[in-house]
Structures are given as structure tokens and as C-alpha cells.
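Fold description:
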Amino acid sequence: MAGTVALPEAFDFTATGILGEKRDTMLENQLLLRTELSHPMKRGYTEYPGRSFCYGKPNAPKDGGAAEALSGWPSGGLYFHRKREGSQDMRPERDFMALNRSAVQAGLTNSREYSQFRSTHDIRRKVPTESEEKKTSRRLPPDMVYGIATRPATPIHDLLEHRYQDRWVNERRSLELSKRKKDHSKKLVPGQVYDTRASILRSYQVPVELAPLWHMPKFANKASPHLETFRSAPAREQAFSNYQSDKIGRQGLFGHGIYEPAKN
């Protein structure tokens, strides 16, 4: 027996609409479905539970009224908290930091050994007792205010009188005067030769020959060009010498352009 046919209203969002034959497979083919107003597309979802399904964790109502509100916050991370319900039966969480520390001390290095170590060893975090939790709680002063303190207002009279600018100029002037005084207090060392302008202009830096480029040892002495266009080595040197003297009057970065006229 064939499956039950869906209601005609469900086919309003298919490509066929109210015409043609209606099959349940049309409601599953994404190529035949049209977009619905205010509803997301269903393509890309595997095992879609349906529209009535709600994702998320349900909120457990625990409204005890004024008595529960006055007894403190249910979380232990805040200053005021009440005793946890069922804390005696609650199993503490695993202490992964202690497990990793023990694995390192045992000489384990890779993830596979870590997984085996965690499956055979179990270290739990210490559950704080009620006395330890009471030590962490403290009473806040009545005038306690949370947040960042407001910056004091800038005096408008100092801004109108440019007092901040004058203060900065005075500070720079005092630093410059102190630097001049320190330079003036330096005494010339007798016997020390000081450079003059003529000696600085006369100084010459000896050119250093650059190190040759690195070549593979097997090609350093045996490699030779496949094509040699010069008849001899002197002819090659003469051609490059002519090129160096001829590129002075030519345009271009490498002196391969046209000749440019002389300039006065």
C-alpha cells in the first residue's frame, strides 16, 4: 500500500503548486521547493527534526520566591551564594591539568600515549567544602560602585589661556638649556686629534672587493657556455670596453637607447 498523501496545503510551496500530480517525494526534493516567507531553507540539514523542534537547553524553573532570593545567589562564583543542592552526591570533574602533569612526569610525549594514560588514570578536582567557600565570600561596603572611575573634568580656564601649551614649551626649553649646559661643560681632552672640515673631506674609504657568488662545486670550474660569440678573450674585453665608453651618450638605464644631444 502506498504511503499516505500529504495535505494539499503542503504543496503550495512546491514548483508544481496546485497543478499536476502530488507525491510526498516532492516535499523532500529541494529543487522543487520554493522559499517560504520568514522561514529558513531546509537544504543542508541532515535528519531535520521538524518545525516543532526547538534547539537549546530548556530552562528549569526554580523560582522559590522571596525566600530563595534572600538566601543568596545559586552560583558559587559570586560573593553571596547558598549551599549547593545535592553537592554530596555530585561527582567532581576530572583534573586534566593534573593528568597532563602526571603524563609528562611519566615520560609520555605524543597524543596517543596521553589518551591511553587518561583512560587508565583518573584524577578528580578537589571539591571545596562549605567552610572553604565561606572564606572566599566577603561583604561589600554600602557605598561600593562598580565600573571605571570618571576622569576629572579638564579646567576650561587652562584651555582658554593655553596653559598646557605654555607648560610644554617651558619643558622643552628647560631640556634644551640643560643639554647646552652639559655640552658646554665638556672639556677638550689634550692630545686627542679632532677632525676638521678639511680632514673630513679629505678622508677616503678604501673600496672592498665583494665576495664572489656561490657556485656549486661541480660547476665551478668545468661549466662552460654552449655558445661563444667572440673570437677570443681579447676581442670580448675590447667589445665590453667599447660598450662602456659608448653608453655614456645613450639614453636608458643600461645605455642601450638612442643618442641624446649634448647639454650645456
Observations:
- Confidence is low (pLDDT under 50) at residues 76-82.
- Residues 66-136 form one domain.
- The CA atoms of residues 65 and 90 lie 26 Å apart.
- Residues 163-185 form the longest helix (23 residues).
